[in-house]
């Protein structure tokens, strides 16, 4: 699919449609990505952005994997996109772990910028290609069921502070 493909719009579909939920989740992530990518910003401001970004990313990614991507991997037309999303999420998880263990400010800044660019690319691809394909190959009732599952999974993660894996519970911020 071309980069020029129209982004999916929320239109008249239900608030429980998983597509709408994902698009809403992307908004704060995009704002924080801009701060994290900006090398001109003070280190402290970028650290604060990352401290907010990491739990938002985890509370979005894990439910997306267990709902949307799982559904996609079961559909011949969507299968590859589901696996690609999983792989990109794994890379982002690894980057978050590395950033949390990084003490050197310059290395920390480089890793945060790479994470921000990786997630930015993932969001753009998801909004421009993956979600429109998913919408084309799914029924609104399936999207609403997946939205409900997404919401339930996300709520559970948020109740645990936004972080889901054991290594992420140890520390939420670098300093």
Question: What tags apply to this protein structure?
Answer:
175 residues; mainly alpha; 6 helices; 75% helix; 0% strand; elongated; disordered N terminus; disordered C terminus; Hemerythrin-like domain-containing protein; Hemerythrin-like
Q: How does this model look, in words?
A:
The chain is mainly α. The protein has one domain. 75% of the residues lie in helices and 0% in strands. It has 6 helices and no strands. The chain has helices at residues 18-37, 43-73, 79-101, 105-136, 140-159, 166-170. The longest helix has 32 residues, at 105-136. The chain is elongated. The termini are far apart. The relative contact order is 0.20. The model is unreliable at 1-11 and 165-175 (pLDDT under 50). It comes from Bdellovibrio bacteriovorus. It holds the Pfam family Hemerythrin. Residues 18-132 form the Hemerythrin-like domain. This is Hemerythrin-like domain-containing protein.
């Amino acid at each position: 699919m071309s980069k020029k493909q129209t982004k999916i719009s929320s239109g008249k579909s239900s608030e429980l449609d998983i597509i709408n939920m994902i698009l809403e989740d992307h908004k704060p992530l995009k704002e924080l990505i801009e701060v994290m990518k900006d090398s001109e910003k003070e280190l402290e401001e970028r650290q604060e952005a990352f401290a907010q970004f990491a739990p938002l990313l985890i509370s979005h990614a894990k439910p997306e994997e267990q709902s949307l991507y799982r559904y996609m991997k079961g559909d011949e037309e969507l299968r590859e996109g589901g696996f690609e999303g999983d792989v990109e999420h794994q890379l982002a998880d690894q980057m978050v772990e590395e950033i949390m263990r990084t003490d050197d400010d310059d290395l920390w800044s480089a890793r945060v910028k790479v994470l921000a660019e990786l997630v930015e690319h993932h969001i753009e691809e998801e909004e421009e290609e993956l979600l429109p394909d998913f919408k084309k190959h799914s029924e609104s009732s399936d999207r609403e069921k997946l939205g409900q599952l997404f919401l339930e999974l996300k709520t559970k993660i948020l109740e645990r502070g936004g972080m889901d894996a054991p290594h992420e519970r140890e520390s939420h911020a670098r300093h």
